[in-house]
Amino acid sequence: MVSAKAPGHVVVVGAGIIGLSTAWYLQEHGIKVTVVDRGGVASGSSWGNAGWLTPALTLPLSEPSVLRTGLKAMLDPASPLYIPFSADPSLLKFLAGFARNCTPGKWRAAMGVFAEVGHTGLDAFDEIAQAAGPGAEPTHPAEPFLTGFASVADRDALVREFNVIRETGGSVDYELMSGEQLRALEPTLGPAVVAGIKIRGQRYINPPAFMDSLAESVTSRGATITGAFNVVDVRDTGTGVEVIGSEGRSLQADAVVLATGAWLGALARKFGVKRVVQAGRGYSFTVVPEAMPSHPIYFPDQRVACTPLGDRFRVAGMMEFRNVDAPLDPRRIKAIVEAASPMFTGINWEDRAEEWVGARPCTTDGFPLVGASRSPRVHVAGGHGMWGIALGPLTGKMIAAGLTGTTPPAIMRHFNPLR
Predict the structure, then answer these.
(1) What is the pLDDT of residue 88?
(2) CATH code of the domain covering residue 210
(3) Which end of the chain is more exposed for a tag (fewer CB within 10 A), N or C?
(4) 2 in a domain, yes or no?
(5) CA 335 to CA 257: how far, in whole Å?
(6) Average model confidence (pLDDT) for the chain?
């Protein structure tokens, strides 16, 4: 049933995990939804990511050592964090703001916020799964989730982060492992992996399959999803909104949700959302190992994330701060291969498929932008950085609560888009 305060019809701009989750939760309140996207379902960063639902690793990017790494990375295209030299004022503004958040105090405070998120992101996935029924694409338990390291010293760095999670109110269930113990679980790991950690209570998804399933669920409940609809402007008419697309197209509704990922600022800025949303581009590809892994595997020092997708193995990495629409750079794929190949055995790295680049929307403080803009009819949902998948359904739940006047999850107070 639609609340008296709720809009009757909402346009959601963006058909990624954030946009479709928002549509799903709005439908839970009985609201008519139209979803539009410049490409189509999962045409942005929701398709080729690692698909991790990992509260233990949902951590702020602004860790103090990243700033030191980033300064060196500006000169090294092979670095996991690559910042090509640019005079782009928006990028320079983002980097200055990001640097201000890479202090130990601000990082620890951010860790406390992510610790508060905890498993509520998983709870939102469960709500969608329970309503969708047995035919929907599920989340998969990572029992356990594995991390691998080339040295014990590298492993100790992640253990220290886990200690901070516990100190700031979170919880992590983990166990230290040797390289031999890891290879007993995953024979495809090579001798360069000398230490590891297994983490319990984490999950993952097959992103393309999950996104298709979520889109089917939303449309089966009455929503329209229109691709190739490039929104060029949004207007608050005083009683509703007009969503204007290219080629003279437009839609009228009571409210709009901007869930456009790394393109968020272009539409949201005139509604008071001043935070820079910078594209932090990630790359991935798939291979078929001789022994197919059955667990997600992370190499923190190399910043390489690996996920089994049934008949193939996705390998992802890089954080590249550059123009959102720049083409795929083959050097980034090569850098991932060079970082990952010593850690495995039995993989033909030349036999790659599904090479992909996607733009993760990053904010300077590492927190998403979720909620009403200066206009009560224009809400935004973006800026999740690397954690759009993990926090997608929770974000949809928060946006739906804001639009319907119901009580939102408490964590939403940290994500005011007008901050």
Answers:
(1) 81
(2) 3.50.50.60
(3) N
(4) no
(5) 37
(6) 94
Please check whether residue 60 is in contact with residue 103, taking contact to mean a CB–CB distance below 8 angstroms: no
- Rounded to an integer, what distance in angstroms lies between the CA atom of residue 301 and that of residue 318? 12
pTM: 0.95
Look up residue 400 and give its two tokens. 């739906």
Angle separating helix axes 207-220 and 17-28, nearest 10 degrees: 30
Tokens 């803009």 belong to which residue?
Answer: 373
Q: Establish if 293 belongs to a structural domain.
A: yes
When pLDDT is averaged across residues 351-355 and rounded to a whole number, the result is: 98
Q: Residue 410 sits in which domain range?
A: 9-414
Q: How far is residue 408's CA from residue 310's CA, in Å, rounded to a whole number?
A: 36
Q: pLDDT digits over 244-258, tens only?
A: 999 889 999 999 999
Confidence at 37, pLDDT banded by 50, 70, 90? very high
Domain count, the chain: 1
Task: For residue 73, tell me if it sits in a domain.
Answer: yes
Q: Which tokens hold the place of 109?
A: 């405070």
- Contacts with 45 (C-beta within 8 Å, 6 or more apart), sequence order: 16, 261, 262, 282, 358, 359, 360, 361, 388
What is the mean pLDDT of the segment spanning 223-229? 97
Q: How far apart are the first and last CA of the chain?
A: 32
Q: Alpha-carbon Rg of the chain, whole angstroms?
A: 21
Tokens 């998948």 found at: 389
Q: How far apart are CA 377 and CA 99, in angstroms?
A: 33
Q: What is the dihedral of CA 5, 6, 9, 12, to 10 degrees?
A: 130
